[in-house]
Design goal:
This protein has five helices and no strands. The protein is an all-alpha fold. The longest helix is centred in the last third of the chain and has 30 residues.
Length: about 140
Amino acid sequence: MLASAPQYNEWAVLGLLFLIAAGFAVFNVILSTVLGPKRKGQVKESPYESGVEPIGDTKKRFNVRFYLIAMIFLVFEVEVLFLIPWLTIFPKNAFDILNLAGPGYAIHYGVLFAAMLTFIAIILVAYLYAWGKGILKWD
């Protein structure tokens, strides 16, 4: 009787990947602490911004518009992250939906398309709300 190939658990492989990633991160932090510079002083600990000495108070408040624009940017980035995989699996031609293995696939792709249109509509409503509130106006 032949010996069968060893069976691997997918979760064990994933756990091993996480252990390797965590070990790599911890190793790099320890390595930078051991090999990093050790000298301290007033010049080394002073703030430095692009070769210019900082002027004024460092605790000055920023306008909230900076954060709102950043949040809108993140919303659209998340939208793109969801759209790219959807676009890769969706048929390139509308007739391909009908030519797949039966009418069940057409219903499946129709639901998938409706779900993506709903997702885009929700993002569009959020964008229009932000635009209506004047968040995108830069004075």
